[in-house]
Design a protein that fits this description.
Elements: H1 7-19, E1 25-36, E2 46-62, E3 65-70, E4 77-78, H2 90-102, E5 109-116, H3 126-141, H4 148-163, H5 170-177, E6 182-187, E7 192-197, E8 202-206, H6 217-234, H7 250-256, H8 261-283, H9 287-303, H10 310-321, E9 326-330, E10 337-341, H11 347-362, E11 368-371, E12 378-379
Parallel strand pairs: 3-5
Antiparallel strand pairs: 1-2, 1-12, 2-5, 2-6, 3-4, 6-7, 8-10, 8-11, 9-10
Helix pairs in contact: 2-3, 2-4, 3-4, 3-5, 4-5, 6-8, 7-8, 8-9, 10-11
Length: 381
Amino acid sequence: MTAPASPTRQATSLFQERFGSRPTVLVSAPGRVNLIGEHTDYNGGPVLPLAIERRTVVAAARARGWSLASTLDGPLRRVDPGEDKPEGWLAYAWGVIRVLEAERLAPPGARIGVGSSVPVGAGLSSSAALAVSLTRALLALAGHRLNPRDVAELAYRAEHDEVGVGCGRMDQTVVARARRGHALYFDTETREVKHLPLDIPVWILETGVVHRLVGGRLDERRRECETALQLVQQQGYRVTQLAQVDPADLGALSRALPAPFASRVQHVVTEVRRTRAAAAALAHHQYAELGRLLFEGHLSLRDHYQSSCAEADCLVREAEEAGAMGARLTGAGWGGAVIAILPPGREAGALARIQERFRKAFGRLPTAWVTRAAPGLRSER
């Protein structure tokens, strides 16, 4: 696949075209893939994502009022944080502005240009890349310097509290705090962060099925997890998050809880165990073990959390047949992308086989590209 145009060039060119001047602030943040730890972040468990090399760039300058343009759609848009939430990508800008104004951290207004090479709707956290980079850009325009942890928290509040995405803090945390050549182990209960070495390429295989974060099945699963936690507590277990359930208790809980709540608990508890095992494997460069855990995690997403789709299942199955070390659906699910660790030295042949099998099943070739672990939030020239 041809690499997309530089998002920095996109953002600065768009800004100059729409506003007739140069931006005073230029900030970028990456998309992300989650190696493992899916749907554990809002259940109090650990996650293990990495930042990808594709980024979203925000070019900005102070102004009166809020004017925005993005390479996603082109035309100049205006946002009023005092009005109802707008549609599409503007909702995330609206949410960021509202949070910063509530904290008295916002400039009086801004002209904003956005460029991005992060695919939208592919489960690669394009929304967090926008929210984090825009948060940092507006803070800079207002003369504030916050550390990446605090920027991530503000961006999380914009997405979760204002836009209404039923997410945890994983996306904003890795987008803001990632390091080049490392995955990020994040314990969402303790907020502990560890950077673990990851020196192999990770392939992204897009299903071509766009998922929705707001008002979709992610919100439904989160509500199911909240109900499941209440049911577990009613059984006498003293836990405050599903991630705290002891794996030894899964047998008894699976018999006691009705469907679909037993399956949701099964996925969360076993995914917590897999994520901790994957972190240990990464720390010792045990990529075969990491790959085994990826395959196992996908089966749980498919069967217990029921967040996969036919296209993702096909890509994972064919990746395994082609000799991949590991593969699984990444992101919220019901579409998006599959990650794969393809066999070293045989990537091209494996990829060709996977794409051809997918084409026979669905009549089109899946978009595929490769990334290495990239740095998080940063200023651009």
